[in-house]
Amino acid sequence: MQQLPSVDTVFLSMETPETPGHIGGLTILDPSTHPEDAFDFDRFVEFVAERLALCPRFSWTLQQVPLGFDRPYWVETPDLDFGQHIHRLAVPSPGGQRELADLASLLYPQPLDRSRPLWEMTFIEGLQGGRVALLWKVHHCLIDGASGAGLIEFLSDLEPTPAKCNPAQLEDLSQAGTPVGALRMLANGALNAMQRPGAAVKHLAAAGRGVIEQIRTEGLSGTSMAPRVSFNGALGTRRSIAWSRLSLERVKQLKRELGVTVNDVVLALTSDAVRRYLAERGELPEDSLYAAVPVSIRAEGDKSIGNQISEVSVEWATNREDPLERLFAIHESSTAAKARVHSGKLNLVEAIAESLPPGMLSLLSHVGASLAESSPLPSNAVVSNVQLSPHPLYVAGAKMEGMVPMSLLAPTQGLNITVLTYNGEMHFGVIADPDLVDNVWTIADAIPKALGELEAAAEADPRFAG
Fold it and tell me: Which of helix, strand or coil describes residue 354?
């Protein structure tokens, strides 16, 4: 018997039709690298089935507790047909980037079926150059960004010839069982309910201490709310997806020259792109926007599946015109925010998970959606950064040429930018509600331009030139 952990339950309970709770990606594959020139849909399904059979949780389903009184249970699904979770489509002619983006934008927001294991893949053919795309979706209650990257590596090889997979490559200590009876559910639910008031008091106290400490060290400005812009509103069910890529080495060079982190540079580039987007529409606010940045709380070397994340709000410095000033403001805010997380004062996701039953979380999500345009706004959009292999990877013998990371949209946040670092490049996936962001490609295309401007500014500044 295995109940869904508290933090994982948050991502399940807060799901609505407008905010589906899965994450995923769009992987571009080159079949010409297959050693036997035998890459096709049937062989791909066989390959995925063999790999995922070594990770039991991808054959589990959820047993819900009536009325959301308690956390759901993982239940084993005997004799799962993995092929039922892998679909096959072709991209419209001429099979270019925009046609693929349009198809992905249509497929990605469709919610996963909760009566089945919470993942699916779509094998997309017809791309230019004989390429194939793989669109995959996994519910956030199963994995976070870091373990999602681990899953990609689990399904991949370092050589075109697939190796015999070692189950130890993907650590998973969770277990599923048979369906739980009503009396056992009631007893477990009552026990868990008795623990919630104490957890709520603990987290409220931690929150109070954190706010007091933040005001003491950063002043009242450290507790500011974000200004509302056009992509902060009530979400619909549609999504639009765009992407861009740039050299990791160029970003690392800036990091070394300017004494900041790679994440700081990522935030600066995305800030420039969003700032440009808002300025072109005449709605750039005087006050800075804020980015919500997921922070992994995993121990070093921990590759286990599941969610081990917190989140910080970082000043995005969109009110700074100078690229270097913007970067250093982000660096200062990010450093302070991450210090608060690692001090252990408050983990908001954990606090919500341990203090409220799933049914209450679900109710609050639906109520919150109706109040999206009038509620306080702690941040404007999510920006996250995930690490993948620094070496080329192969899926069923086909080389992974690129990867577009895709994440979820939170209530009031119609924009999400996720970065995945792979094989010497940084891949930026931009997902938005098209009713709130009219052209998501303008943001994606502006990110490489922002890197050039930041490099030029650093080169022109005598403090860093040469």
Answer: helix
DSSP 274-327: HHHHHHHTT---SSPPEEEEEEE-PPTT---SS--EEEEEEE--TT--SHHHHH
pLDDT at 307: 56
The CB density around residue 105, as the number of other CB atoms within 10 Å, is 19
Known catalytic residues? 140
CA 141-392-137 angle, 5° bins? 25
Widest CA span in the chain: 72
Angle, CA 311 vertex, CA 305 and CA 316 arms, to 5°: 135
Bridge-based pairing state of the strands 290-296 and 381-387: parallel
Amino acid type, 175: Q
Residue 167: what pLDDT?
47
List all residues 6 or more positions away from 265 whose beta carbon is below 8 Å from its beta carbon.
251, 254, 255, 327, 454
Query: Which pLDDT belongs to residue 77?
Result: 84
Q: Which residues of 269-285 are buried (b: 16+ CB within 10 A; e: fewer)?
A: bbbbbbbbbbeeeeebe
Burial class (CB in 10 A: 0-12, 13-18, 19+), 194: exposed
Distance, in Å, from the CA atom of 231 to the CA atom of 381, rounded to the nearest integer, reads 9
Torsion of CA 253, 148, 84, 39, to 10 degrees: 40
Query: What one-letter code names the amino acid at 253?
Result: Q
Which residues partner with 295 through β-bridges? 310
What is the residue type of 189? G
For residues 258 and 325, what is the distance between their CA atoms, to the nearest angstrom?
A: 11
Record the tokens describing residue 444, joined without a space: 């994606």
Distance CA 441, CA 421 (A): 20
CA distance 12 to 139: 8
- Helix residue ranges, H only, 356-464: 358-370, 440-460
Q: Report the C-alpha gap between 404 and 422 in whole angstroms.
A: 10
Residue with tokens 């053919």: 125
First to last CA, the chain: 62
Which residues make Cβ contacts (< 8 Å) with residue 223, sequence separation at least 6? Answer: 211, 214, 215
**How far are the Cα atoms of 317, 318, 383, 445 from residue 280, in angstroms, in the given order?**
17, 13, 21, 14
Q: What is the pLDDT of residue 166?
A: 53
Output the pLDDT for position 303. 53
Residue 78: cis peptide before it, omega within 30 degrees of 0: no
- 424-to-149, 246, 247, 389 alpha-carbon distances in Å: 15, 9, 6, 9
**What token pair was written down for 327?**
């970067």
Residue numbers in the chain where pLDDT is lower than 50: 167-168, 222
CA distance 123 to 284: 40
118 touches 138 (CB < 8 A): yes
Q: Where are the beta strands (DSSP E) in 351-423?
A: 381-387, 394-395, 398-406, 415-422
Question: Which residues is 251 bridged to in the sheet?
Answer: none
